[in-house]
Amino acid sequence: xxxxxxxxxxxxxxxxxxxxxxxxxxxxxxxxxxxxxxxxxxxxxxxxxxxxxxxxxxxxxxxxxxxxxxxxxxxxxxxxxxxxxxxxxxxxxxxxxxxxxxxxxxxxxxxxxxxxxxxxxxxxxxxxxxxxxxxxxxxxxxxxxxxxxxxxxxxxxxxxxxxxxxxxxxxxxxxxxxxxxxxxxxxxxxxxxxxxxxxxx
Length: 201
Hints:
mainly alpha, globular, single chain
């Protein structure tokens, strides 16, 4: 039996709370309906800024544990069918409550949640999952020096570059793209390769 690392489990829980908060702020309309300059406006945006890293943390954790994992088609199918199940249930509830109406497009989204990107995170994550065996194989071939250079390049391109106002970010989807997920996964995996069992290997 694998020993649970409760620090990572706690981080996952905190990230999930952050994501719930982000959805409440965004989809719940809090950010749009607060008066600019008010205390609620300030607190809502501080909370959003503090919580926006939640998805990044999930992908970094995936890289940390995924670097030594083996690809299993069963796990991929399980993730997809979970996605389809919740798509079916949630859409059924909305139709039953007559919320949002019904359309052919909604029906297509219902049966093809992955290709329609009905759930953007799962669509990108499942695509990343398909790439993981090749990412892992590539990272395992690199020396520590090469890993360090790669991580520095990633930070310069995806962290420093977008922070300079006069530069147009390479990631034009604001951190929601597949290649940004690949970057985060690779960073998490590299941390694991550098610090196996808590010591520099």
